[in-house]
Amino acid sequence: MRHFVLLLLIGCASEAPPAGEPACNACHGSDTSIAPPSALGGSTDRQSRGVGAHQIHASNGLGIPVACDACHIMPASLNAPGHIDTPWPAEVVFDEVGSTGLTPVWDTDLLTCTTYCHGATLAGGASTEPSWVVPGGQSGCSTCHGAPPPLPHPQDGACGSCHETSRNGPPDPATHIDGILQVDPAQGCDACHGQDGDPAPPPALDGATDPSDPGVGAHTVHLDGTGVGPAIACATCHPVPTDVNDVPHLSGTTDVVMSGPAAAGGVTPAYEPSTQTCTVYCHGVTFAGATAPTPAWTDDQGGACSRCHAFPPAAPHPSSTACADCHPSGPGAIDAATHLDGTLDVATLACDACHGGAGDPAPATGAHAAHLSGTTYTDAGVPCSTCHPVPSALNDGTHYDGTVDVVLGGDASLGGVTPAYEPVGQTCTVYCHGPTVGGGTATAPAWTDTLGPACSLCHGQPPPSPHPPNSSCQSCHASVVGAGPVIVAPALHIDGSLQFN
After folding, report:
1. Residue 6 and residue 93: Cα distance in Å, rounded?
2. Same domain, 143 and 245
3. pLDDT score at 276
4. Residue ranges of the chain with pLDDT lower than 70?
5. Are 194 and 200 contacting, i.e. CB atoms less than 8 angstroms apart?
6. 68, 135, 186, 431: which sits with the fewest CB atoms below 10 Å from its CB?
């Protein structure tokens, strides 16, 4: 079997022979045509090699007529090289259009050709290697390409919807089979997927309309927007082509490359094609307690808040479900424009919005109330900053990170004490509880102890030697303590100074 490289040019004009030389149809063709029949040997049989499909090509109805020099060397004269200087059969040397997208092949044994013109670069054709000598090899659109072509071509047989050269019926022969894909540049994305100006399926490329079909899935929910978020732009999940032939558009693969809100909150978004699930900020992978943070594309996901985050979120979030108390909008009034935008929107709030209440930021746990409300021992309460870093905003520093930070200072470090907190036993060693005085029975109290207001918890009554064995405190410290004993000047008690009369 011999194969010749074919370079095919459709539509070249034939040149008349030089003056004084016989016309082309003196040897082949007829009175009205230079294309066989008849062939050089006089044959007129369509199934003979010398005749074959010459006349079909010369009178091509699907494209411009195929000129002789599209398949053969057109000699400038009778004796020009390549004309009558070699034995029959004629040499086949084709030109440009037939080689569009491939290296075409002429099979001299089977008498078939593989060329662009007959659909070798297209999909779905039933006869893309037609026989030169068998009549009717390519008589319909589907012989060269599917009608419609298979996916990723839309499964719509109305060719004129996208190909303007076919808008009024059969394709325009002047541009059909010319090596250029003719697509109407005015067509929107919805010409292939989606409809009525909306590029989001349904329908999908294959015509599917059911959300359980991966080509449809949750497109409508994402692109139309819902009550919990804005419409998602196509570019958030897919490369958006500027032209129908942009790579990788029309590659047959749906490319999912996520960005924008999908990557908010420090998330590295990902799509898992085997399960059709995504890991994105939008579905709550950075929040605790979500019931469906990696939903499948074909899930009927619904709009429950708990799918993306617990309702309410777990601690350190307050246990209140009255979202609108802290967030500018809440259930029933979510601002879709700012929800899911990567920013935690919190109203300017007092501390008691999350812990404490009624203007008091101290939680009703442990010894918070005893410290912050003040007693006859301390007068004004202990400031929050004595034990904790106090943020100037919700997201300052380590505030709201799930860990209670205890950083002791202020009165806790008076008297040369290096204050310390032991988180396992929840005990503290601070000046306030008397470790520098002596004789106290609970100088490192646990945070949850209920010890009551006894002087002896912090220091002996009286303290041990060298303190005098006198329990009438007012004898020496009357500016602070009176008979009873009763603290008469709470502001001077536990202030780091030893007060004498």
Report:
1. 6
2. no
3. 92
4. 1-19, 137, 301-303, 329-333
5. yes
6. 186
Q: Characterize the bridge pairing of strands 277-279 and 420-422.
A: unpaired
- 143 and 208 together in one domain: no
Nearest CA to 253 out of 220, 215, 216 is that of 215
pLDDT given at position 196: 85
Distances (CA, A) of 482 to 377, 439, 475, 479, 490: 12, 20, 9, 8, 11
| Beta-ladder partners of 112 | 107, 131
Same domain for 283 and 425, yes or no, is no
Contact between 204 and 213 under an 8 Å Cβ cutoff? The reply is yes
The whole-angstrom separation of Cα 415 and Cα 385 is 18
Query: Which of 436, 238, 260, 439 minimizes the C-alpha distance to 341?
Result: 260
pLDDT at 303: 65
Partner residues linked to 113 by β-bridges: 106
Give the pLDDT of residue 480. Answer: 93
Which residue's structure tokens are 């499909």? 53
Rounded CA-CA distance 480/490 in Å is: 7
- Find, among 346, 324, 322, 334, the residue nearest to 399 by Cα: 346
Which pair of structure tokens corresponds to residue 205? Answer: 């490329």
Identify the helix (H) or strand (E) that includes residue 244.
none
Q: How many domains does the chain have?
A: 3
Mean pLDDT of the chain: 84
- What is the model's pLDDT at position 18? 66
User: Which residue, of 146, 165, 187, is where some domain finishes?
Assistant: 187
- DSSP character at residue 149: P
- The range of the structural domain enclosing residue 380 comes to 351-501
Structure tokens, 7: 């370079």
**Residue 35 CB coordination number (10 Å):** 23
Domain-terminating residue out of 150, 168, 187: 187
Same domain for 361 and 340: no
Same domain, 331 and 380: no
Q: What pLDDT score does 13 carry?
A: 36
149 and 2 in one domain? Answer: yes
Q: Judge if pTM exceeds 0.85.
A: no
Tally Cβ neighbours within 10 Å of residue 378: 19
How far is residue 269's CA from residue 230's CA, in Å, rounded to a whole number?
Answer: 19
**What's the one-letter identity of residue 321?**
T
Whole-angstrom distance, CA of residue 432 vs CA of residue 442:
11
CB 468 within 8 Å of CB 475: no
